[in-house]
Design goal:
CATH class of the domain at 5-103: Alpha Beta
Distance between the termini: 24 Å
CATH topology of the domain at 5-103: Ubiquitin-like (UB roll)
Number of strands: 8
CATH superfamily of the domain at 5-103: Phosphoribosyl-AMP cyclohydrolase
Strand order of the largest sheet: 2-1-6-5
Order of helices and strands: HEEHEEEEEEH
Structural class: alpha+beta
Length: 145
């Protein structure tokens, strides 16, 4: 990350964001090297501030109602290269270095592995690693993390 500690520690930058009524903002993770979209997750103020401070993606798990450090179980961390805010101030873009080459809990590089083709969703991207090998058979919620 390029922010200085004084910039990150000052929470005023968090006030610019247009949070949802439940205090969240969608965050899109993009491969910083290739531009490929890897995933979308939610962030709250605390997760975004920690992401900026730590230089690693920390999201908010809506299903578990707690912070979720990407890669905490899988080892597939996302190292932050840039954090951007869209023109409407209601969507974040995280440019990341994806560790392990897998962002999706299904064992794929990207969560956007299905394409609409003649009215059907077709899986277009291969599974790089079996999710059971990544998380074990007790995966918990859909995020796998």
């Amino acid at each position: 990350m390029q922010d200085s500690p004084s910039t990150v520690d000052n929470p005023e930058w968090l006030n610019v964001i247009r949070w949802t009524d439940d205090g969240l903002v969608p965050a899109i993770a993009q491969d910083a090297a290739t531009g490929e979209i890897l995933m979308m997750a939610w962030m709250n103020r605390e997760s975004l501030q920690r992401t900026a401070e730590e230089g690693q993606a920390v999201y908010w798990s809506r299903s578990r109602q707690k912070l979720w450090r990407k890669g905490e179980r899988s080892g597939h961390q996302q190292l932050i290269r840039e954090i951007r805010l869209d023109c409407d101030e209601d969507v974040l873009l995280l440019k990341v270095e994806q560790k392990g080459g897998i962002a999706c809990h299904t064992g794929r590089k990207s969560c956007f592995y299905r394409k609409l083709d003649n009215g059907e969703w077709l899986s277009t991207d291969p599974v790089l690693r079996d999710p059971d090998a990544i998380y074990g058979t007790e995966r918990g919620d859909k995020t796998g993390e």
